[in-house]
Every structure is written in C-alpha cells, then in structure tokens.
Amino acid sequence: MHKPSDLGCGPRPKPLARPWPARMALTLALAALLAGCSSPPASDAPSSPHRNAQGFRNPSGVQVEKPLGELLRWQWEKWRDGLPPAAGQATPQQAPDLGFLHSNARAGAQMQPTLTWIGHASTLVQASGLNVLTDPMFSQRAFMVQWLGPQRQQPPGLTLAQLPHIDVVLISHNHYDHLDRASVQALAAQAGGSPLFLVPLGLKAWMQEQGITRVEELDWWQERRVAGVDFALTPVQHWSARGLSDHNHSLWGGWAVLGPDFHWYFSGDTGYSADFVATRERLAARQGPAQGGGFDLALIAIGAYAPRWFMKEQHVDPDEAVQVHLDLGAKRSVGVHWGTFLLSDEALDQPPKDLARARQARGLGEADFGVMALGETRHLPRRSPQRPPQSTPSAP
C-alpha cells in the first residue's frame, strides 16, 4: 500500500505530451488501494492502548488518510498545472569519505559522532560506538514493484556495498519510501551478521516474512538498550499501510536515541502536532543542564508538503519543521526527506529554499537547521563525559 504523498511518477511531463492515460490509470489503481479497502486488524495483532478495532491511531485522534475524492482532485490539479515544476538544480552530492567512515565504525568508545546523508530519510549515524541506519532505502523506485512508482532522481550518497558494518537499523513506519524490502533484506545478509532491526509495533511479523529474524518491535515510549545506548520509539502524527487490507495495522513513530556522549532524534514522516513538545518534556530529566540539555542533533523531514490542503496532516512543511526543531529543544537540526523522490507538488529543490526563509523568520542560522549534500559526512561534538543515561520503565 502506497501512501498519498508517494504518487508522483517521474519528472515533470512536457505540456503537449503528458502521459495522461498511463498516469490516470496508475492514479486510479492506487486510489482503489486508498479508498477504504482496509479491514480490521487480525485478532492476534499486537495489543496497545493506541489501537482500536480499526487499527492504530494518532495521539490527537487526527485522521490522516484522505478520501478517494480528495485524492483524485489532487491528481487532477497536479496534471492540469503541470506539477511539480522542474528543479532549478540537482540535489547536491559529494563523494563519501569511506576511509573515515570505516575507521570510525571500528573506533568503539572513541567513535566521533557523525551524520552521513544517504538520501531521502536514509542516514548513517555513527555515535556512542554504534553504526545506525534510519529508514534504509537504496532501491530505484519507492513502490511494491520496481517497474512502477516514484523513481529515484539521484543515486544514494552511499551504496549498500560502501556501508560499514551496521549495528542497528531504525524503521519509522511501513510506507515504501521508508521500509524497502530489498534494502532491509540486503542489510540482514551483511557480512558479519544481521543488524538489530528496531521497528514500530505490528511490523515484526512482516520482517520475519522477509527472512529477517533479528528484529524487535516497540510501542510508543518503549525502549531497547543496545550496548549502553537507549532507543525509544516516540509518537508522531502519521499513518501506515502497504497493501489493500492493512491500513494502520502497524504503528509509526520517531526515534529518540540517547547514548552516553550523544543524543539524537529522527522524525520519520510526520504532520505537526503536540508530540514534539511532549517528547522534550518526557526526556527533560535525562537531557537537563547536567547532561548538556536537549538533543545534540535532530533529523527532521522537510519535503513532500505541497499542496498543503492535502499534505498538512501527514507531512510538515519547512516552517513547521523549524517549529519542530524549537519544540524539541535541539541544538542543531538537519533536514531530510527531500531531494530524492518526486512525491508531491513542490520542486525537488524547493524544500531547502523554504527552510532558509523559515529559519530566517525565526532568527536561526544555517548552523542551527540546514541541509546536507548526498554522501556528505558532518562531524558533531560529543557531550561531556558522563554516566550512561538510565532507562525509565517502558510505558506504552
């Protein structure tokens, strides 16, 4: 099941040669998937206070999925107006520093905290002795088949073969541009053994069907400690589905990662909500002044936001992303979820431009909240030496 925001299909068509029949056929096929064809979760689905008879639900109760009529209206307006417009420039890309990444991967307690942008929501975070991937997506298309659906506009900043050994993979939710079958299967088969896959509640069974057995699923606010680093699934406003009958059968979320010398956050996909203030408040005792305060780094989605009447509930725009940065109390943030797939009505290079205007309006600089080139590695400061953060009891 593909989400409404993932229906863009390649570069902008020429005005006199729009592939309307093929595009409309695809739209109608996907619309059928989105138009209420869901069934209640199976009786053996994971229990959670966040789930009712129809599936998991957002903390605020906001319903994110759109009815068929609104989906068709969006696709008609997109075709009529020739959207998205062509990008003025390609997404910046630079050669990865493979020598450093691989030596840093083996550095253990001496590991330098770094962030490498692979593309879309896929990043490599090296910190606190662990190599962690977020939402790994290395395939050419974000869809159930590789001959249809949104096509990658830029190659990944790192290939699967160039990655160091990965310790943990974080999945935010099950949409095709965030949970890619071929990518997770390849990672599970990496030399030296599979990483630990941490997934939202309801996805463990799907992962096991792909032959991935080293996987644990979490509800909101549950945690898993790995080598002294705490990984907590945090609530965000979104939804889930991969097929005809699994709307909201699995949970979605962001990830808070608290290590002895580095704290970071990954938003996944999200609309704006009170969840980010709640996340800051929930973790305040573990991120107070003695611990350096707030997240050292936040990875916040900034793309796939137009048109707002259709996207607002499920994807923040850059102005809202800046508010997320402030709500979290992050020392610095980096925009992800842009520049790789044409998923909505803004140009591929528009999110960084809108982000620059949004942060300037709030008196923030690029060092506070900026973007990176594909393949770029950013070195980040460690926290002062301290005892490892203490886990709080899991509370769904």
* Classification by helices and strands: alpha/beta
Estimated share of beta-strand residues:
15-25%
What's the tally of helices? 9
Strand arrangement, major sheet: 8-7-6-5-4-3-16
Average pLDDT taken over every residue: 87
- How much helical structure, as a percent, in the residues? 10-25%
Nearest-angstrom radius of gyration?
A: 20 Å
Q: Could you please describe the fold and organization of this structure?
A:
The protein is globular. By secondary structure, it is an alpha/beta fold. A seven-stranded mixed β-sheet has the order 8-7-6-5-4-3-16. A seven-stranded mixed β-sheet has the order 9-10-11-12-13-14-15, covered by helices on one side. A two-stranded antiparallel ribbon has the order 1-2. The chain has nine helices and 16 strands. α1 runs antiparallel to α2 and α8 crosses α9.
Quick overview:
The chain has about 400 residues and is α/β, with parallel strands linked by helices. It has nine helices and 16 strands. The chain is about 20% helix and about 15% strand.
List strands and helices in order, with pairings.
Elements: H1 20-34, E1 51-52, E2 55-56, H2 68-81, H3 98-105, E3 114-119, E4 122-127, E5 130-134, E6 168-170, H4 181-188, E7 196-200, H5 204-209, E8 215-218, E9 223-226, E10 229-234, E11 254-258, E12 263-266, H6 275-283, E13 297-301, H7 308-311, H8 318-328, E14 333-336, H9 350-361, E15 369-370, E16 377-379
Parallel strand pairs: 5-6, 6-7, 7-8, 12-13, 13-14, 14-15
Antiparallel strand pairs: 1-2, 3-4, 3-16, 4-5, 9-10, 10-11, 11-12
Helix pairs in contact: 1-2, 8-9
